[in-house]
Amino acid sequence: MNLIAISALTLLLHSKFAIAGLNENERIEEYYRRGNTWPPAENDFKPPTKGWKQLNKRRFKQLEYLEDNNRKRYEGYMQSVYSALISKNFTEYGWGVTRAPQAVIDKLKKRLNDGMKNDKYDFEHETDVIETESRPLFFRDQVMNREIVEEMLPLHEAWSGVELVPNNAYGLRVYRNDTNLNMHLDKKETHVISSILHVDHGENDDPWPIVIEDFHGNTNEVFLESGDMLFYESSKLVHGRPKKMNGEYYSSLFSHYYPKDWNPDELELDMHYRIPEYDIWGFSKERVDDDFDNLIFAGLSLKEPDCENAWCGLKGSIKWNGPGPGYGKVLSGDGIITTLSPIPTEDSFWGNQKDNNIDEAEDEL
Question: Can you give the pTM of this predicted structure?
Answer without folding.
Answer: 0.90
